[in-house]
Each structure stands twice: as structure tokens, then as C-alpha cells.
Give the backbone structure.
Amino acid sequence: MSDMAIQDSYPPEFAHCFGCGPGNPHGHHLKSYLLGYETIARFTPDLKYSGGVPDHVYGGMIASLMDCHGTASAAAFAYRKDGRTMGDGRRPIRFVTASLRVEFKKPTPLGCELVVKGQLLSLQGRKAWVDLKLAAGDQVCATGEMLAIRLPDPVES
Ligand SMILES: CCCCCCCCCCCC(=O)SCCNC(=O)CCNC(=O)[C@H](O)C(C)(C)COP(=O)(O)OP(=O)(O)OC[C@H]1O[C@@H](n2cnc3c(N)ncnc32)[C@H](O)[C@@H]1OP(=O)(O)O
């Protein structure tokens, strides 16, 4: 596993994301890592992120974790495809979420560590499809599929 979180390679101007930006003092600071051919992030939601049932995680939090982990995963997979290293000093590869489908399979318990994993389904041009799974222990509680779009490099003036 790379020691560097994917989000730690984001330059300061792209580090404001509430879910994962290292530069947002109020955010969740989700950190995703490339581990072989998949990505992984670990996160324990604060007890205030309760869903309708006190012991269950709010669905928006689950989608938020997938949102940030999915775009970070897309970037990591694109770096690998391009033969680049994250934080290599060149223009960063940036993806944003175009669509995210989440399926809530089981209630997600609050108060324990959640593990989010991502796998690349397809990378075609600017489009990356990422498969996502969120688990508590051995139980997969939610699955997701993201279409992430690579932002074009800014045009030099
Ligand atoms: C390292 C630093 C990181 C730093 C970055 C860190 C970011 C952390 C992000 C965390 C996650 C977020 O919250 S992201 C925030 C939430 N997401 C957003 O705000 C995105 C809002 N949407 C947009 O800005 C735009 O729609 C884009 C960028 C997604 C696409 O616009 P565009 O650049 O003009 O490109 P466009 O031609 O429309 O689309 C390109 C291709 O994708 C397809 N496409 C576009 N949207 C969709 C869609 N919803 N469903 C299906 N297909 C779609 C098009 O048909 C086209 O296919 P083809 O014709 O080529 O075949």
C-alpha cells in the first residue's frame, strides 16, 4: 500500500472538499489509499451522523464517503494508467462525480469503523466507472457505482 493518501497529493487549490480535503478544517478528512488493484479508506463517523434509527449511520454520510473515495480512486487509477506517480509535481489529475448510484443493502452500524473499497470497472477517455463497497466488519452495508469525469487541464494563456 502506498504510504501517501490519494487526497494528500491534492494541491492546496483543490484541497477544500468537505469530505476529503486536507485543507478544510471543518471537513471529514477522508483518506484513501491505493492497495494493489483496489483502493481503501477507513472512517468512523461521529455519533452525530445518526440516521432515523439512533444506532444507524445517516445515508447521506454513506453517499458522501463513496463520493470522495470514488473520485480519489478514479484519480489513482488514471495515474497508474498514465504511468504517473501521485504528487509528481506535474499537473494533477482531477476527477469529479458525474453520477453516483448507492444501494443501501443493510443498516450501517454507528460507532464503528467503516471500510470503503473501490475497484476500477472501466476507464475510457475522461470517464472512469468505479465500483464501491462500504462494509462494517464482515458485513457489506452499501454498494455503489460511480461515473467520475476527468477535468481537462486548464488552457495555458
Ligand atoms: C488530484 C486533484 C484532485 C482534486 C479534486 C478533488 C475533488 C474531490 C471531489 C469529491 C467529490 C465531489 O463532491 S465532486 C462534486 C459533485 N460533482 C460536480 O459538481 C460535477 C458537476 N458537473 C460538472 O461539472 C460537469 O457536468 C462535468 C465536469 C462532470 C462534465 O462536464 P464537461 O467537462 O463539460 O464534460 P461533458 O462533455 O459534459 O461530459 C464528458 C463525458 O461524460 C459524459 N457524462 C457527463 N455527465 C454524465 C452523467 N451524469 N451521466 C452519464 N454520462 C455523463 C458525457 O456524455 C461525455 O461523454 P462522451 O460524449 O465523451 O462519451
